[in-house]
5-oxoprolinase subunit A
Amino acid sequence: MFHIDLNCDLGESFGVYKIGNDEEILNYVTSANIACGFHAGDPATMRQTVLLALEKGVSIGAHPGLSDLIGFGRRNLPITPREAYEIVVYQIGALNAFVKAEGGVMKHVKPHGALYNMAAVNRELSEAIARAVYKVDPELVLFGLAGSELVKAGKKVGLQTANEVFADRTYQSDGTLTPRSRENALVTDDRKAVAQVVRMIKEGKVLSEQGADVEIQADTVCIHGDGPHALNFARHIREEFMKEGITVQSYS
């Protein structure tokens, strides 16, 4: 029997701007990464998403990003390790206040967008982020790109880590994600996306854009909640996991 956590980035609306279908997606995932107000989210959205996750029994995590609302946190911005430490501590603290106020317990942290991708290959940045998480709460699980510098840094500082893989993204031969700026960055065919992630779970391999298999560990699978077909894909992937004998359960 194979086990996998299914996570989704949520709470990414802001003010009057609504992104995603958080309430429905939460019926299919086991971990929610909730935006903390820098790349998306606001106090009302954060609280509402926390309440929904608690109601549906979904594990709650902080989703800290770069201070870039206009770019949705997906643009690489020059940031020092010290700044990374400070913004991660700040954002974890903000979301954790809402979680505690509503009687819940935060379980994990997953950086967002450009911060996540930069940390995947930058040792100093990843160590600053891991240290920030550990200093806030050493019991938190750090989610990072499978095999990345972020996962290594989490282990080094003493955190439990989760190797994350992506259902709807293509991979490079070094195990990194294909940049979103490239046309082939996203897997738009649901059948291909499911087949890719099932293989990662069962065989520990993913086919890179260069045509070579890459060894990969899958502890948690990310599905994006802001896509036009996100809800249908969430239903589909749960159904296919059941057929493949893959049990979906929270990692943290």
The radius of gyration is 17 Å.
